[in-house]
Specification:
heterodimer, A: alpha/beta, Rossmann fold, 3 domains, 7-stranded parallel beta sheet, 12 helices, B: alpha/beta, 5-stranded parallel beta sheet, globular, binds cobalamin
């Protein structure tokens, strides 16, 4: 396959799967061809609805995703899935097993599933997830599902990425609700109690509704947040969830918030990229000497930062 | 983690439900810093090929303990070629009788690791292949 960024960009814009797959690999590996590729495809983005799916381990996120994909396909929509699993902090290796639950879509040309390791990033996503979602958007997928790592605590990142965030819980595990509450309760757009045939469904649902009631008091202008039930392993509840996701998009679009969320996401990414690049440059200028000086208490951390920034300024002026 | 991790797809074809070997290999590769994508059991060569392309893996690894591999592996190798993915390394392990070896290698299986193979040898082989591949690309 052609290994030139322009060529891969051109081919992925026609929907070619191998080209999209290679693009995501470059972005994930931080290959120097990644930025040029993104520049070429970015004008073609902004149409896909990015749907985040998060919740504690064992909530059945992959099985739920599998069911939703089937439901979207039955409505003729094309779907891409980014399934994120944790990388080992010690070796960098990972076992990415989310495809197992989605095997029935393996030969469907309207479904593209990609597994990503977190590669040292906290927050439930990999550093490349935003960019990978843009690639799928440019390829013309109607829906991009982002399934986060199941840590259940502070998976805040997906909220910044997705147009619509779905929070999945299961009955009978009170602690999991606590974990969900601590993290992203604030931001969920649709709540799903999966494995709803289990004991404790009513209690879990009530807990969710109570928390949402509290949330609504601080944000009275917001429309009511749906709490839905599913038994994904048996294919129950998919239609209602897919309809709620579509309704959420319609509501966002009506308020001008669909484009606004894209804009906010892009803005946050610009800021992060500048931050990373400036930090790298400043550290390069300072070398180890500045840290040695801090260690020896000849300069304090604030002073050291000031010093590096001044050096950076001077270099910019000199250039 | 600036070095590019090797991405490996691990799959089992057909009705073969022996899972111990493939699980051990998955963990060994993860401990060696590789990204392992499991497709699960009961895959067809077509499914494995589609997954290998979507995941843009470097290596496709098939574990086979219930025979049938003299048909399924050559078919997979052909599908990968047709998909323009012949640059991916195709390896197999499990219960593979000596007399099947030539057929499989002829069909495009790059390396076979049978029963009792040391996982350290498997890791070392993949590491070396990856180092050579990256050196080739850099050149
Ligand atoms: C345990 C076992 C079972 C268990 C499996 C449990 C499970 N969840 O895995 C159970 C009892 C369920 C079972 C069932 C059957 N089994 Co059985 N089973 C075995 C046994 C005893 C050990 C297999 C094992 O786990 N080995 C340990 C692992 C670590 O070794 P491994 O898989 O070979 O993996 C190593 C290497 O091969 C290599 N490797 C393996 N995969 C890969 C992949 C890659 C990418 C790489 C690089 C390397 C690699 O690395 C590993 C580490 O060294 C073998 C006999 C044997 N000695 O192999 C028979 C054996 C495999 N079974 C056999 C048979 C016939 C069956 C049944 C059909 C029996 C029946 N009539 O019902 C069923 C069918 C199951 C099915 N549908 O596939 C035959 C297969 C004959 C053949 N291929 O021609 C064997 C060889 C026994 C025999 N001598 O007859 N079995």
């Amino acid at each position: 396959m052609g290994q030139d960024a322009g060529d891969v960009a051109r081919r992925l814009l026609t929907g070619e799967i191998a080209a999209g797959a290679r693009a995501i690999r470059w972005l994930d590996d931080r290959d120097p061809r990644g930025p040029a590729l993104l520049a070429a495809v970015y004008p073609h983005t902004g149409r896909a609805q990015i749907v985040g799916i998060t919740g504690p381990p064992g909530a059945g996120k992959s099985t739920l995703t599998d069911m939703l994909v089937a439901e979207w396909r039955s409505r003729g929509m094309r779907v891409a899935v980014l399934a994120v699993d944790p990388s080992s902090p010690f070796t960098g290796g990972a076992i990415l097993g989310d495809r197992v639950r989605m095997a029935r879509h393996a030969l469907d040309p309207g479904v593209f599933i990609r597994s990503l390791g977190t590669r040292g990033q906290a927050g439930g996503l990999s550093r490349s997830t935003h960019d990978a979602a843009l690639v799928f958007d440019a390829m013309g997928y109607d829906i991009v599902v982002v399934e986060t790592v199941g840590v259940g605590q502070d998976e805040i990142d997906v909220v910044n990425l997705a147009h619509t965030t779905i929070i999945v819980a299961v009955p009978g595990l009170g602690d999991e609700i606590q974990a969900v509450k601590a993290g992203i309760m604030e931001a969920g757009d649709i709540f799903v109690v999966n494995k709803a045939d289990r004991d404790g469904y009513d209690a879990t649902r009530r807990q969710m509704e109570m928390m949402l009631h509290l949330r609504a008091q601080s944000r009275p202008a917001q429309p009511e947040t749906p709490v839905l039930r599913s038994v994904a392993a048996r294919g129950e509840g998919g239609a209602e969830i897919v309809e709620a996701i579509a309704a959420h998009r319609t509501r966002l679009e009506g308020a001008g918030d669909f484009a606004r969320r894209n804009g906010l996401r892009a803005r946050a990414q610009v800021i992060n990229l500048v931050k990373d690049a400036l930090t790298a440059r400043a550290l390069e200028l300072g070398g180890d000497a500045i840290f040695d000086a801090v260690d020896a208490r000849r300069i304090d951390p604030h002073g050291a930062a000031e010093h590096l920034l001044r050096q950076l300024d001077e270099r910019i002026i000199a250039a | 983690m600036n070095k590019r991790p090797l991405r490996v797809l691990l799959a089992k074809l057909g009705m073969d439900t022996h899972t111990v070997g493939v699980t051990i290999i998955g963990h060994a590769l993860r401990e060696a810093g590789m990204e392992v994508i499991f497709t699960g059991l009961k895959q067809t060569p077509e499914m494995v090929c589609a997954a290998a392309v979507q995941e843009d893996v470097d290596v496709v690894g098939i574990s086979t303990l219930s025979a049938g591999h003299t048909r399924s592996l050559p078919r997979l190798a052909r599908l990968l070629r047709e998909a323009g993915a012949e640059d991916k390394l195709l390896v197999a392990g499990g219960v593979i009788p000596e007399e099947d070896r030539a057929v499989l290698e002829e069909a495009g299986v790059d390396r076979i690791f049978t029963m009792g193979s040391d996982t350290r040898d498997i890791v070392a082989y993949l590491d070396q292949w990856w180092a050579e591949r990256q050196a080739e690309e850099a050149a």
